[in-house]
Amino acid sequence: MRALILLASFRYLTRFQLEELLFDASPEPLGAARVMTRRVLKRLQNEHLLAAHPRIVGGAAGGSGRTVYSPSAAGLKVVRSLCPGLPRRESGSRRPFLLQHSLATAEVALAFQRSAREMGYRLVEWDFDWGAGEPIGGGVVVPDARLVYANAEYEVEAFVEIDLGTERMGFFAAKLRRYLELYRAGTWRLGHVSWPLVAIVVPDERRALVVARLAQAALQDADDVRTAVEFWIATAERVHNETLGRIWRVVGRDGMFTLLPDG
To answer: What's the whole-model pTM score?
Structure first.
C-alpha cells in the first residue's frame, strides 16, 4: 500500500526511484530491496492497480528502456479511500511534461533523502503538491512540494518549485507573483508559524539567471513584502550532487548559500 500511495502521490515513478523511496532508511540489503520492489510492482500489476509505460528517453532519472509506472484507475480509487485529500486525476496520462515533471520532483525528494542519510540530518516532512497547498489555503498558488529539513541545531521549511525550463517566462513570472500575493493574503499563517522560503530547482545555470531576473523584478514591484519573501534558486545537477553545499542563489543577495548552516 505504501508503494501504491507513493506512485499516486508522485504520479509517475521508475522502479529505481520507488525502490529507493521505499527502502532508503531500511536495513534491507540492496539485493533484497530490489527483489522486493519487483515483487510489489508485479503484484500491483496482477491486481490491475498499476499501469506500466515505456520510458521516455532523456529528462529526469534519464536512461532509455526504463519503464515508468503509474496507478491505474482502480489503483487511484484505492488510494483515494486511504488518502481522501488526493485530487481526482486521469490515470495513465502520457503527457510528456507531466511525466517528466513527476520524475524530476521524485529526484529532488530523493536528493534530500540521500543527504539526510549521509549527513545524519532529517527530512522531517515532504508534502506532495496536493498536500502542500492545504496548509496555505490553496487557490492562490500550489507548490510542487513542501519540505521541512533539519540538522541538530537548525530547521528550514521551504515551498519547492520544480522548473523544467519549458514554461514561458510570463507564466513563470506570474507564478512568482502569486507567492507574493499569498504572503499578503495571510492564509498561510493558519498552518505555519513563519513564512517558508521558496526553493526553485532549475535545469541549468542559464535558466537560473532567467528565473533570478524574474524574481528580482517581482520583488522590486512589491516593497511591502520584499524583505519577507525569499526566492532560493539552484540547478538540478547541483541539488542532486551537493544538496547541502553552497549551491543556492538567493535573489537580492550576493554570493551562494547553504540551505542549512552546519550543525
So the answer is: 0.88
